[in-house]
């Protein structure tokens, strides 16, 4: 796989996570210069109206499923439409406390032998 640029796609699968996803989206500002797109796959949440409010961020792509397809299928939906070679999967109840993830991003971008990387 040829590495075209250093931008990443972030994929978030959500199901009734409006209480936590806003904190996550806000925390992603810490690595904004690395982010090309934020793909949110909603698995038929009852709180989708609240999640739609974050759609104003120009980097966000929101996919609304009409049923809960489960985590793996939803992640694959996001990967399929992603336009980047680097993908960060993150749960909606997580958030970045600082920019330490940048070290992992830089490491995988520089080494063609790394296919996946995770933090402690």
Notes on the structure:
This protein is of the alpha/beta class. It is 30% helix and 20% strand. Strands 3-2-1-4 form a four-stranded parallel beta sheet. The longest helix has 11 residues, at 71-81. Helix 2 (48-52) links the parallel strand 2 (35-42) and strand 3 (60-64).
Question: Would you spell out the secondary-structure blueprint of this structure?
Answer:
Layout: E1 8-14, H1 18-27, E2 35-42, H2 48-52, E3 60-64, H3 71-81, E4 86-89, H4 101-110
Parallel strand pairs: 1-2, 1-4, 2-3
Short description:
The protein has 120 residues and is of the alpha/beta class. The protein has four helices and four strands.
Features:
alpha/beta; 4 helices; 4 strands
Task: Report the strand count.
Answer: 4
CA-CA gap between termini: 27 Å
Enumerate the spans where pLDDT stays under 50 for 5 or more consecutive residues.
none
Order of helices and strands: EHEHEHEH
Strand arrangement, major sheet:
3-2-1-4
Query: How confident overall, as mean pLDDT?
Result: 88
Percent strand equals 15-25%
- Biggest pleated sheet: 4 strands, parallel
Instruction: Report helical residue fraction.
Output: 25-40%
